Amino acid sequence: MLKVITYLKPYRIAVVIALILMLTELGVELVQPFFMAKIIDEGILVNNLSAVMKWGGIMVVFSIISFAAGVINSFYAAHVSQNFGFDVRKAIFEKVQSFSFANFNQFPASSLITRMTNDITQIQNTVFMSLRIMLRAPLLIIGGLLMAFVVNVKLALILSAVIPFLFIFLIWVMNKGRVLFKNVQERLDSVNGVMRETLTGIRLIKAFIRRKYEVSRFAEANNELKDRTVTALRVMEVAMPVLLFIMNVSIIGVLWFGNMQLNTGEVKVGEVVAIVNYATRITAAFSIFSFIIMAFSRARASSARIVEVMETPIDLLDRKDADSVFAVKEGKIEFKNVMFQYPGTETSAIDDISFTVQPGKTVAILGATGSGKTSLFQLIPRLYDVNSGQVLIDGMDVREMKMESLRKQIGFVPQEALLFSGSVKENIGWGKEAASMEDIIEAAKDAQIYDTIKKLPNQFETKLGQKGVNLSGGQKQRLSIARALVRQPKILLLDDSTSALDRRTEAKLLDALKAYPCTTLIITQKISTAMEADQILLLEDGGLLAKGTHDSLLDTSKLYNEIFSSQSREESRNYA
Amino acid sequence: MLKEIIRPFQYKKMKHLNIEDTKSKNKQKSRIYFSTLKRIWYFLSSNKGLLFLVLFMVFLSSALGLLGPYLVGMAIDDYIVTRKMDGFVTLLVSLGVIYVFYSLSIWFQNYWMIGIAQDTVYTMRMRLFQHLHKLPIPFFDKRQHGELMSRITNDIENVSSTLNSSVIQIFSSLLTLIGTVAVMLWLSPLLTLLTLIIVPLMFFGMKWITKRTGPLFKEQQRNLGELNGFIEETISGQRIIKTFSQEKKVTAEFLEKSERLKAAGFWAQTYSGFIPKLMNVLNNLSFAIIAGIGGILALNGMISIGVIVIFVEYSRQFTRPLNDLANQFNTLLSAIAGAERVFEILDEEEEFKNERLLHELPQVKGEVEFKNVTFSYEEESKTVKNIDLHVYPGETAAFVGPTGAGKTTMINLLSRFYDVDSGSIYIDGHDLAKVKKESLRKYMGFVLQDSFMFQGTVRENIRYGRLDASDAEVVEAAKLANAHSFIVRLPEGYDTVLSQEGSGISQGQKQLLSIARAFLANPSILILDEATSSIDTVTELKIQAALQKLMKGRTSFVIAHRLNTIQNADRIFVLDEGRIIEEGNHDSLLKKKGFYYQLHGQAASSEA
Fold this sequence. Notes:
Chain A is an alpha/beta fold. Chain A has helices at residues 2-5, 12-44, 49-97, 101-104, 109-134, 136-151, 153-200, 202-207, 211-264, 269-310, 373-379, 403-407, 424-429, 437-446, 450-455, 473-485, 503-514, 527-531, 550-556, 558-574, and strands at 333-340, 350-357, 362-367, 388-393, 396-397, 410-413, 422-423, 463-464, 491-495, 519-523, 535-540, 543-548. Chain A folds into three domains: 2-310, ABC transporter transmembrane region fold (Up-down Bundle), CATH 1.20.1560; 325-409 and 491-498 and 516-576, Rossmann fold, CATH 3.40.50.300; 413-488, Rossmann fold (3-Layer(aba) Sandwich). Chain A has 20 helices and twelve strands. In chain A, helix 2 packs antiparallel against helix 3 (49-97), helix 2 runs parallel beside helix 6 (136-151) and helix 9 packs antiparallel against helix 10. In chain B, the strands form three sheets. Chain B has a six-stranded mixed beta sheet with strand order 6-9-10-3-11-12, sandwiched between helices. Chain B has a four-stranded antiparallel beta sheet with strand order 2-1-4-5, covered by helices on one side. In chain B, strand 9 (525-529), helix 18 (537-551) and strand 10 form a beta-alpha-beta unit. Chains A and B meet through helix 2, helix 3, helix 4, helix 5 and helix 7 of A and helix 3, helix 4, helix 5, helix 6 and helix 8 of B.
């Protein structure tokens, strides 16, 4: 909690003002019964009407001051809490942006999302409340007690006797609550998780008519959430009746003791009245308290979840001595005895691979499903770090560069064409800040998607749903290729990104790519694509089985021949 | 420092919310509020028995809450002022008993109410989720996942926290209010009237505030939903964001959305913060009035001091429920803002609407016919036009053509993910428009373009094809799909949990698992949409035989750019720009030297 609270620091002036205003209100509230005692003791009991008017008037003036203070306090409290929420959100978002993929695997996406919205909202609301009433309650209690002591020490002692027990009780409830609400938030994560899966897999769910199955999965998560929430809330709600009871008993005590003392003349009637009044006020403050401990427990649980994200060590960072001047100029790629395995797995995905790609050349990567093609790709923009060996760009180890200066020069087209909500133009231009319309059109043309875009209802302004669902697979792939091309990258990585294209379109695309002065790596299944490359790398089980040109591989590699024949059969039939 | 001091007063007013609306619009708005409340009530009222008990407890606690101070007043008036002792202890004991029951009644009402509230929230979540599953695919095309997720978490959360406390608060406030006014009238009508002076003031104040907070809460929830959507997208799209090194751009966009949420939140909070302050000042005002005027009356001997003391207490009792009501009104508005967004989804038309009138599709032989089918995703451009095709039971039909020609659309229409604009599709002579959708899909097995894996083990993911499949059958299906060999090499074999990124499963391997799923499903009509696009050709050859076996005796629809599967197809439909331009088998189409020949000629020539 403390770590999150430090985000309040920039707003300390506003916090102080809000607190002062709150204290003003509080002060007014505390002196009210005092005025009333005056009205009774100095006015009514001695038949002094002017005293009644005097104290009544003062009361009204004070009320108005308190109102003004309250309204202004509202501005400051909202200002502080909203900015606080904004800053925490910003910090956590930036942190998550710096996550490596290994980091991402520590938190389910749905949980990260809950933390960034729901958990922050919880804390934000608690901050707002604190600046308005949270401190008010304890101060009201302390103030009420102090005033009670001023009025009559003996009676006040009765009141204050129960207070320590109440506090111990409240702290116990609060600690309990923190644990319980942590559970609640975790269950909320799983509800969110099932929901997210449904949304991503809706087509599959509908296709396999798994509606009921999914609903039962959700019901389970939802039920858990309900149970945990009910448990947490019920524990919290015990506080209130207990508090009320203890306080009410102390009122009885005051009455009884007050009556005894009246007879000895140590206590005045007005004093008993005033103390009973303070006691009811303190009781009211305690009932706010039960509300507060709830909010506070929730906030503590939520803060812990946020801090957990913030304190996750990032395992993929720019080195301190990273070369800040370096920029990819030529695009020479070199792998030196690279070994790599995914965190948490036992077998290596890439096993001792070495090769060199000269600037401007094109290399095709072939291999069976799961042979490590995509894994190899991910090492170039340094999405993962090698376990041993080196990946060099223009002769420099990628780990010695700044990630940003490395990635700026890479155009990457992933296997799964992932687009963002927004227009076609935004999606293509996404890859480059301040991409001009000309750049976008050129990239679209080269990616063979220009004609298609022209036919869309609003052309480049056509909105795409999330993941570009209203486009065909091939169209999405080409858009994501255009997005990479618009950057004019020095290194272009195509991860089997033409699989949904028909051959004619693909040929045109590859032709257009030739005009780009960049080093190109293409993962492909198609011999026809591989043949166009200057060099072919053939992977098997994470190792580099063979490299060479189409002809040399035909001579030397059994696997390559196998792949070739698996495809040439169909080609030869074409001529049949 | 000065800047920091004046900053809270420099937020831009949210003009676009049209707070200063005309009166008719306000009426309309309050009608919406009312109908939303009614729907929340509908969910709540399924627990009528318990709700009644809660109400009874609220009644009890309110009565006891009134009785307590009354006895305190009596104690002061009859015993303390008069310094009498007889019966004082009895009075205190009965006061103690009242307090015990008071606390108990509060505990019970909370205990039950939490149960009811969470039941309600549970049902709302269930309803929302169930309804989502009934919505047609086009609905999902237009929505951001995270935005929808926000409704099931953040929006329902608003409803939840309100129901937990507000229902009780509102009832007890109302009861206390009525009770207090009654007792006050009985004690002194004059002082009561004085106390009531503040009511109109309160009313106008509340109206002014809630007119603002209502739309602001809605705006806040909307912005929160958008932000949630954005966050979800950036997490899903991490791979792209990282490789393109666009973290700064994404963060800037995030901050912009976050800023909007902040602005809406600021005003919503500020205005809602006014309410207790307003109540407080009115509270104090009535305190002063009662004391002052009560004092005058007491001087004139018209009332006793005890009455004033009781009255002061009652006037607090009177303003407290009003105060609470006012506060509840605010949380109620925020709950309504959340609930409205939930109901928005519940009001979306489901794809099974009117299905009661439709019949179940009997066991399918697999004859498929498209008659003059036309369809478009967007109004302007037709995606497929005047499609006529006929496929006989057991045949394999292939769709080929350039990307965007409408191949996947054909599958979408056949499985009724989308509905045709005109024309009809028949299976075994049954018009699909007259058949229950799920009874149709029951006979179909899919390997879709996007091979989605759920969070869960490999085994669970394959079993998704048929939930009652035995472990042996799962392994058998995996072997047929050529997935077995890589699965056993995974760290935990079939029990390896497939999570998000970097679980060590490649795209091609996911496709193999999808194929295994379809093997397990054992459908009458098989649909393979780019089922092997990410699989290398050698592996593809290996599963080819199995696929042939799977397709045997079933009507199959295949979309593929690679030809292995297509070559053996009984019928090939060549699509271009949404029309079938050629039809035949591989050999006849090649002989025709038309579009199909060209598509392949191109590939062949690049190889030559």
